[in-house]
Automatic annotation (TrEMBL):
Its EC number is 2.7.1.33. This is Pantothenate kinase. The gene is coaA. GO terms for cellular component: cytoplasm. It is an enzyme of class 2 (transferase). Belongs to the prokaryotic pantothenate kinase family.
């Protein structure tokens, strides 16, 4: 047993240095190759096979235990109620964290690892950006500078989507977002057809809403989660990742005339950097402080990254 200091004893989490966490992998096999990891990672994310070995295999093993336990509970409840027509509903994993912290890479790696379990579960991945209000509506409500803030999402649609998924409906539609055009894709959608596991990723997935004055119970997105993960790093690091990514996108995605940010590919580097700094300070950092970081204590698991983007510490909620 490790020595615990006082703050750890009274914290709802147990903290593990990444190398200690790696040991919980036990005999979980490595089912991804270096090439596959390279294809799954986002542009500025250096995650590699060693990181999958160190962090993600133990996480995959933990999630497998949770999924198995929930399936057992489902079977026992069915027996208890003596019903045959109970519908098995998807196990939902929420992934939260700041803009530019690397949620998409984590979500894609987890998806691939989970679908390679021996039971070959069907795993789907949905991101909450599709539930943003379209730019035309954001402009109408003067919210273009609040993209990603709670009021920029169609929360009703988001909750309806999760409720449909959790009630076992087939062919549930999720709207899609394009980072290229910086807008919701009109007329395009993703069909989610009764997966065994749904990964639901976005900055807002652990947010709660104020209770209305009339005392009516309002559901939260996380009410539908079976397990939640928060990806964390110091704000200074995320800030530098955001600006570095913007400067790289300036040389790649922004050169596409269809990119909403195309004009920034034409600007000198200093002027482009000033735009990125402005977007970070006025929108994303503000949102992180006001609406995202306050949700961290609601996560079941926190993956904390260091300067190199690699995970340094894992905090697991004590049951
Ligand atoms: N303006 C942009 N143009 C093209 N791709 C982008 C742009 N902004 C972000 N992306 C890509 O979109 C994905 C989601 O990014 P983001 O929402 O910041 O979350 P995270 O970095 O936590 O995954 C990343 O793969 C990122 O590289
Ligand atoms: C779409 C986003 C809110 C992020 O959503 P996510 O997929 O990370 O949940 C973000 O990428 C964004 O557009 N922020 C607004 C300011 C900016 O352009 O960076």
């Amino acid at each position: 047993m490790d020595q615990l200091n006082a703050s750890e004893i009274y914290s709802p989490y147990r903290f593990f240095a990444a190398d200690r966490w790696a040991g919980f992998r036990a005999d979980t096999p490595l089912t991804l190759t270096a090439d596959e990891v390279e294809r799954l990672r986002s542009m500025n994310d250096p995650v590699d096979l060693e990181e999958v070995r160190r962090i993600y295999l133990a996480l995959s093993r933990l999630l497998s235990a949770h999924v198995e336990a929930s399936q057992l509970l489902f079977r026992q409840r069915k027996q208890f109620l003596n019903v045959d027509d109970a519908v098995k509903t998807p196990f939902i994993i929420g992934i939260a964290g700041s803009v530019a912290v690397g949620k998409s890479t984590t979500a894609r790696i987890l998806k691939e690892l989970l679908r390679r379990w021996p039971s070959s579960p069907k795993v789907d991945l949905v991101t909450t950006d599709g539930f943003l209000l379209p730019n035309a509506e954001l402009r109408r409500q003067n919210l273009m500078d609040r993209k990603g803030f709670p009021d920029s999402y169609d929360v009703g649609a988001l909750l309806r989507f999760l409720s449909d998924i959790k009630s076992g409906r087939s062919n549930v539609k999720a709207p899609l977002y394009s980072h290229l055009t910086y807008d919701v894709l009109q007329g395009e959608e993703q069909i989610v057809d009764r997966p065994d596991i749904l990964i639901f990723e976005g900055i807002n997935v652990l947010q709660v809403r104020d209770l209305p004055g009339d005392g009516k119970a309002v559901p939260f997105v996380s009410d539908f989660f079976d397990f939640s993960i928060y990806i964390d790093a110091d704000e200074d690091l995320i800030h530098s990742w955001y600006v570095d990514r913007f400067m790289r996108l300036r040389k790649t995605a922004f050169t596409n005339p269809q990119s909403f940010f195309h004009r920034y590919s034409q600007l000198p580097a200093d002027a482009a950097r000033a735009i990125a700094e402005g977007l970070w300070a006025n929108i994303n950092a503000k949102n992180l402080r006001e609406n995202i970081l306050p949700t961290r204590p609601r996560a079941d698991l926190i993956l904390r990254k260091g300067a190199d983007h690699l995970i340094q510490e894992v905090a697991l909620r004590k049951l």
